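subagent[fold] <- orchestrator: predict structure for attached chain, return tokens only, no commentary.
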Amino acid sequence: MAAAQLTPAHLSERHRPTLDQALEAIRTRAYWSPHPEHPKAYGENGSLSAADGLAAHRAVLGSRFDLDQPGTDGWTGGEVSPYGPALGVEYPHADADVLLPAMRAGLGAWRDAGPETRALVCLEILARISARTHEFAHAVMHTSGQAFMMAFQAGGPHAQDRGLEAVAYAYAEQTRTPQEAGWSKPQGKRDPLELRKTFTPVGRGVSLMIGCNTFPTWNGYPGLFASLATGNAVLVKPHPRAVLPLALTVRIARDVLAEAGFDPNLVALAVERPGEGIAKTLAVRPEIRIIDYTGSTSFGDWLEANARQAQVYTEKAGVNTVVVDSTDDYKGMLANLAFSLSLYSGQMCTTPQNLLIPRDGIATDAGPKSYDEVVADLAAAVEGLLGDDARANGLLGALVNPDVKARLEAAAGLGEVALPSREVVNPDFPDAVVRTPLVVKLDGSKPDAEAAYMSECFGPVSFAVAVDSTAGALELLRRTVREKGAMTVGAYTTSPDVERAVEEVCLEESAQLSLNLTGGVYVNQTAAFSDFHGSGGNPAANAALCDGAFVANRFRVVEVRRPA
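subagent[fold] -> orchestrator:
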């Protein structure tokens, strides 16, 4: 292997201050990010400008994406942008029997490098990804259907923040135990017993990261970097509709590893042929010791039940709920909810689905509002937000796949439609499927309605559920989180008693709660280093992004004792 171009000293000089700031941020939970959110912040100091990023993206289209990784037995692809165009990129198809042993070959040197060097190598990977944020934005946009600005921010700096956050937690957990220690036990008049002990964090082996269609980098980076930073190799298995952002990530990671003197095969890509379904095959192989997965509940449950040789981290589906009891900012509440329902066409695991509203209405600063008035005013707020097609396209993006469109169309028949979904034309991408949110009124006391609101309806669909009282809403909230899970819970109330009651439900059922959001922070947004995404304590996910539990079981500490 060639001499390292990235020495530990170079890496420390470049990235140790950033690692220290990240460690401080996860301790204080204050706002911090080293990755700029604004597109104009890029274009200098080696980062790609908007024009260069677009050119780099276009240069990849219609090409063969060679990674020079072992076990390539053919080529596969087939991604089609939700905005219409085929990407035309071919990726290496891997023979797992060849690739997995090759990935294990570099584990010893990666383990011996230690937690700090691993963390700094990860930060170099993230820095190079950050420099190409404009290129990644187009890759995310044209695989997920996110509008460009959301793809830029969520797929770029916010995803990079989540990756860095995972590295910080990984470093903190691995360095909790000292690398070595002297041990001396007094023996009275005899000489003490003395030992010299070393403690080495050792990764479990090969980690499998199973990517999702909607947020390939944001959901993918925490597991990828948590595993890599704790001494594991990472096999990246993207969603077949969203390969490009993760393929770019793998290429950058392999380059950095090689330049730092490590085996580039510590990170590799596994792309499936159409209909091949390699995730199930890979997940139960004995070499796979860690799995990170974001996607459907059915496959997440299958992984938890069948991949018994691996430590499995899943983010599945939930039924996110908002309890509407009362508000002292009615207009602000409606605007906040309208934005939350509209952002990325509701295709976020954090988007509210069920709005629980007392059938007798609520108290507001604008006077009492009946259930029907609240629902009608919310519909008007969404229509006002999305009335201009250019603004609507910028918020909605495109439906990620035909299944979302089918669910949206079917949901209109589940109850009285308070806000019909309408088609929006995107002049830049006429083949994009763009739809505004649908709001359906349901009676929470009717069994046929329960079948609808107690199931996740992923996409731009929300149910305004009439309940007998706020107390009834809290009981339904409790049952929903306990049985179906929730990534987010929201509540609006002016009552201290109701606030305490909803908080108690969320504490008991382990659900992340947002209270009385009426400004520029929304229930479906979380900030790395400060907010926890999911809790790991209800059926929606068995892990939180990120906390100590997310990283600590990706490695074990191995002790060696010697006479002093």
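orchestrator: received. Logging for downstream: The chain has a mean pLDDT of 97. The CA atoms of residues 336 and 521 lie 8 Å apart.
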